[in-house]
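Project standup — Tuesday

K.O.: blocked on the structure for the chain from last sprint. Re-posting the sequence here as requested.
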Amino acid sequence: MLRRITVALVAAAASLPAPLAAQTVKVGLINSYTGFVAQAADEGGKAFDLYLKLHEKDLPQGIKLEIIKRDDTSNPEVGKRLAQELIAREHVQLLMGVVLSPVAAAIAPLTAEAKVPMLLCIASAGVQIPRISPYVARVSFTLWQQGYPIGKWAAEQGWKKGYTAVSDFIPGHDSEASFTKGFTDGGGQIIGSVRMPPQNPDFIPFVQRIKDAKPNVAFFFVPADPQATALIKAIRDLGVREAGINITAPQDLLPDEALPNMGDTPLGIITSGTYSTAGDRPANKAFVAAWHNEYGENSIPDFLSTRRWSSSRNGRTRTAHAARSRSTRRPATSCRTSISAAPRR
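H.V.: unblocked you, prediction finished:
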């Protein structure tokens, strides 16, 4: 991830007069340390802190980082207010973090007004968010890149009737739409759909409704743990799979760190995603080893961690450039990013 930060920092520094180029650059990190996605934020936050600890030395000569952390409490209005404060009072030169797509959507217009770049490393829904402002770059992937392929795959298994159950906010809507598109393009039919409260839901009535509908396959989206573990428990307790209903989802349903708490129920569930701790690659082995060394053997990273850790490996920077603003006090920096991420099952 620091490679992505470096691109933005180099662009910012390049537009400064030479005597000012060697400086401390302020980065505003907006994260959901509390609220219903605090677990996801914790995974991402740990990865950010670890990468910075190990790789801050790789920054361009003369550049130092000052990280200003803020908690959006999983609330878009709070996130917007914090972004305004970071821009106007702290004069940050880069915004990043943001777990929730609704928070990202609330902040995006401010980046265009202030000409301050923002990197989205976790928020993966709302494909239109980077179009709100040329100063926003998504450096991970979108839920469409997971939902559509798993929908096509499900249809290819000969499953004719599908049912979707998703959290009722932007990521759930994107997941529902992408799976539905893939499944129907493959010849399947959606016979029912339900949207669940994004905070503190009771999954039993929703899962029972799916079981009663008797689809061939059910597609779920919830915002990772702890909701993922609660949903898996409902699926187990109601005997959904024993009723002959197949389960698919994006990787949020089975995050690596939650698997030890789920028993055998996840066995045979097919999810679409970009990361597994079991990946037999040198870079992944080094990442997991560094994680365990820092946080202990019982701490497990997941896809949310790697979004922050290695978003530069999930996409390719096509262009990043800096231009002087008419005011010499704040450079105008714009970046565009092309994402290339293939789901791995």
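K.O.: great, moving the ticket to review. The chain has a mean pLDDT of 84. The chain has two domains: 2-141+283-339, 144-272.
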